[in-house]
């Protein structure tokens, strides 16, 4: 019963985003032991940002990018042409499925994508536009 | 076959080679040529087939126009016609090479990318969140089908991704 009460208390604090000691103190009932109240508040305050970050990390979401690697190859020949020197890029994205659905054993899949130089240029253009839009939003 | 007829035929052939998808047009042009010059279509098709083998083989082995000309002469074509064909070959080879390179095998080719970004307002665990997320949709060609992949990135991940892609671009450019 004690553990469950503590659990509800901390969840409530995290949910509401309470950051001030007074707010947390006011949650305790009137006749609560003073020192214990202060001690608990202190501990909660210390942990609150870690808990919030964890809650955010385990939100439902689309599959998340966890890592990426790339490599540049030069294609020197193929069945349609025997000599050429075409550079191409291989991009490997490690994607983790929805954390909530995976529980304790996250499912990470690796997706390898090939990009030609033109595709890469177009992609960079798109990414640049995202960056501009982001800075426009941030500066508002 | 007279020189003018030959050059008309060569034109038709190269039209087809540079736009291999225009099969209908090629066949129509061939039958027009046959009726105009009173040649029957069957043998014409056979001749065209064997002629087409030469440019395809030339592409595979990166032959120069000199070598193409020599090949044709070896096949029994007159010097004049062989030179004409070789000239046409030289003119068209950049396009044809580019087409051949374009047909080269590509694994999981990225075709398209869409994105949206927004702000997470709240969740069941946190009443007010206010964090920015970026969602990417990548369209990938797997064999003959396309597959959509959806990914979410945080802002720091996005900036890292952008940085890495710029490094890839520098690397690709130094090789071409």
Automatic annotation (TrEMBL), chain A:
Pfam annotation, one family: COMMD9_HN
Any stretches that span the bilayer, and where are they?
none
Q: Which InterPro entries match?
A: COMM (IPR017920), COMMD9 (IPR037360), COMMD9_N (IPR048676)
Superkingdom, taxonomy of origin: Eukaryota
Q: Where is the COMM domain?
A: 64-138
Read off the PANTHER family from this record. COMM DOMAIN-CONTAINING PROTEIN 9
- What's the protein name? COMD9 protein
Upper lineage is: Eukaryota, Metazoa, Chordata, Craniata, Vertebrata
Underlying gene:
Commd9
From TrEMBL, chain B:
Its BP terms in the Gene Ontology are:
negative regulation of DNA-templated transcription; tumor necrosis factor-mediated signaling pathway
Question: In the record, what terms sit under GO molecular function?
Answer: NF-kappaB binding
Q: Which InterPro entries match?
A: COMM, COMMD4/6/7/8, COMMD7
According to the record, the segments passing through the membrane are none
Domain COMM: residue ranges: 109-176
PANTHER family with a match to the protein in the record: COMM DOMAIN-CONTAINING PROTEIN 4-8 FAMILY MEMBER (PTHR16231), COMM DOMAIN-CONTAINING PROTEIN 7 (PTHR16231:SF2)
The identity of this protein, by name, is: COMD7 protein
- Please name the gene that encodes this protein: Commd7
């Amino acid at each position: 019963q004690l553990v469950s009460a503590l659990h509800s208390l901390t969840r409530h604090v995290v949910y509401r985003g309470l950051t001030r000691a007074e707010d947390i103190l006011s949650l305790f009932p009137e006749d609560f032991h003073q020192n214990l109240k202060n001690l608990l508040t202190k501990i909660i305050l210390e942990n609150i940002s870690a808990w919030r970050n964890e809650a955010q990390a385990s939100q439902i979401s689309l599959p998340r990018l966890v890592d990426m690697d790339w490599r540049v190859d030069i294609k020197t020949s193929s069945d349609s042409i025997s000599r050429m020197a075409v550079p191409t890029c291989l991009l490997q994205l490690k994607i983790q499925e929805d954390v909530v659905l995976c529980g304790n054993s996250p499912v990470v899949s690796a997706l390898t994508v090939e990009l030609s130089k033109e595709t890469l240029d177009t992609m960079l253009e798109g990414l640049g536009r995202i960056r501009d839009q982001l800075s426009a939003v941030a500066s508002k | 076959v007279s020189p003018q007829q030959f050059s008309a035929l060569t034109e038709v052939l190269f039209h087809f080679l540079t736009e291999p998808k225009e099969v209908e047009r090629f066949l129509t042009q061939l039958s027009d040529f046959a009726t105009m010059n009173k040649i029957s279509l069957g043998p014409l098709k056979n001749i065209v087939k064997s002629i087409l083998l030469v440019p395809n083989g030339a592409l595979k082995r990166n032959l120069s126009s000199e070598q193409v000309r020599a090949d044709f002469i070896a096949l029994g074509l007159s010097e004049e016609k062989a030179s004409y064909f070789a000239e046409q070959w030289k003119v068209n080879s950049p396009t044809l090479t580019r087409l051949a390179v374009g047909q080269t095998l590509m694994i999981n080719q990225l075709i398209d990318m869409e994105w949206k970004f927004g702000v997470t307002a709240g969740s069941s665990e946190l009443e007010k969140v206010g964090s920015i997320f970026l969602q990417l949709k990548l369209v990938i060609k797997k064999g003959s089908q396309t597959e959509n992949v959806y990914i979410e990135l945080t802002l720091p991940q996005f900036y890292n991704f952008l940085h890495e892609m710029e490094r890839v671009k520098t690397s690709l450019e130094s090789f071409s």
